[in-house]
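Quick log. Single chain, no ligands specified.
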Amino acid sequence: MCSVLQLPRSTFYYEARQRPSVDDVTEAIREIFRRSRENYGTRKIKIELQKQGKCVSRRRIGRIMKDQGLVSTYTLAQFKPKKEACNESMEANELNRAFKQGEELSVVVSDLTYIKVRQKWHYVCVFVDFFNREIIGHSVGERKDAQLVHRAFASIPHDLRRIRMFHTDRGREFNNHLIEDALHTFGIRRSLSKKGCPYDNAVAEATFKIIKTEFVKKRVFSSLTELEREFQDYVNWFNHLRIHGTLDYQSPVRYKQSLLKKIV
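-> predicted structure:
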């Protein structure tokens, strides 16, 4: 074409380099990344762009993110705490890795993780509904014990009699009369992962990987009150806005609402 138009080839390459680096796609990617709290990678950003009617490849998204200095929090290694003695209860694995549940509150899973408050470890406990991966209850505290789990259990804003099964790993904080009494009161079946088999509790492990990466990493809170406030805000974002690959890239609340509309 340059030969036909009698133009030097250098002119074409010069014009190509003049393409603006910040266009509508770049701005859209930056805004999606900001709203994701700097967590989304190319896959989820591509889904969000499609919702806006923009068809952009993951390779191009990756190039733009690199040019703009947008680095997802999922790029750093995770800290692994030391191992502790496990719960030796004879309870069986009633769940048996049936992670996909078709009804709300049919199976609820729980786990704990650690967060620094003034250079001292504090802990977070969450309850997750297998149905839509929604965090339905949570608590924070200074100790990793049954009281922390009990407070998270009490924070669930639903009729607890609707919960059919409660599944956890073999952490000692779940082996306590407080938890047993609560489960017995509301008629909830108990299920424990097999000893030394984290795959039996994969949903909770995956949820806490998300929390550790998106909320805990690189943060130190000045007080327990600040931690409670910030985690409440994160849970609200997690449930209502954060899209999940296992939920057809919808938020937990949107996924539940979409299924309810189909039933109606």
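The mean pLDDT is 83.
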